[in-house]
Amino acid sequence: MSELQNDRFLRALMRQPVDRTPIWMMRQAGRYLPEYRATRAQAGDFLSLCKNTPLACEVTLQPLERYPLDAAILFSDILTIPDAMGLGLYFETGEGPKFRNVIRSEADVAALPTLKADVDLDYVMNAVSTIRSALNGRVPLIGFSGSPWTLATYMVEGGSSKDFREAKKLAYAQPEVMHRLLDHLADSVIDYLNCQIRAGAQAVQIFDTWGGVLSGWAYQEFSLDYMKKIADGLIRENDGRRVPLIIFTKNGGQWLEAMAESGADALGLDWTTDIGNARARVGDRVALQGNMDPTMLYAPKERIRQEVADILKRFGPGTGHVFNLGHGITPGVDPEHAGAFIEAVVELSGEYHREG
User: Fold this and answer.
1) Has residue 354 been placed in a domain?
2) Phi, psi of 249 (to 5 degrees)
3) How far is CA 344 from the centre of its chain?
4) Residue from 254, 286, 280, 295 nearest 267 by CA
5) What pLDDT does residue 95 have?
6) Which residue, of 73, 193, 201, 234, has the fewest CB within 10 Å?
7) Is 77 a catalytic residue?
8) Is 40 noted as a catalytic residue in this protein?
9) Domain range for residue 191?
10) Annotated catalytic residue: which of 40, 132, 279, 305?
11) Mean pLDDT of the chain
């Protein structure tokens, strides 16, 4: 594979010196870009776009053509694993993802097939290898998966949820059944991410979108323990260099110390946690990624720049920071405001990385 021309992102994740703070955005290939909407219309729908290798590659690269980003992220969805297990993923306009089949019992869990990611999700691996080739060493490629707990919530609820009643009921009333499901999912995620790494992903992120709905002990037992299992099972070196792991638990700021012991190289922060406070708490154990509120991108450009300056100042000098939003960019954002955000990081962060 071609030599990496910009490894700023990978270096920051490993807390190695960089010339400026690297930046990428969660959902950077998304509906806020008119070129993305055009490609999605060409594909027909979201899932068809995920499964169309040339078009998935095209939308992954679109934001890199507009902005000086330091990483590309695979265009896919966190629910590919349960879909491959036969749960029947579909999307209803304005309602998010839904499953035709749900998991509610021991028998349902026992009936789940063993995932063979290279076969069952070959379209994802084709996308990874195609994107990696098309990048030609320009920036690193990030692969990803949902966390076992997050995947389980969708599988048990049958879609997204306001109170996660069914998932929590299964966890608290029949913990042995939930643990069996989570263990099965952790094995599947290990296989899935390792296949992505072999196909060309140079860093991987676990999206624990719903870990933050749990209480402290339950987060440890039903979410973090399974992400630790994944960290232990991943390929951590490929192409002669470390493959960093980022763990992102939305609303997980109260558990950073425990997360720092998970085996991850970096922790994603949402916007509710002060990044300076987070750095003081985790020290040099892990890098930090984040964490501007995505809705700040609706503010005037000068206000966006001011917020970037404030977050950089709060993190302070030195490496170990990857700038990102605290969650995914939202569809209504003006692409010029996203550009102003990225430009501010590029222009303002260098002073925090000077020697002496």
Assistant:
1) no
2) -105, 110
3) 23
4) 286
5) 74
6) 234
7) yes
8) yes
9) 45-287
10) 40
11) 96
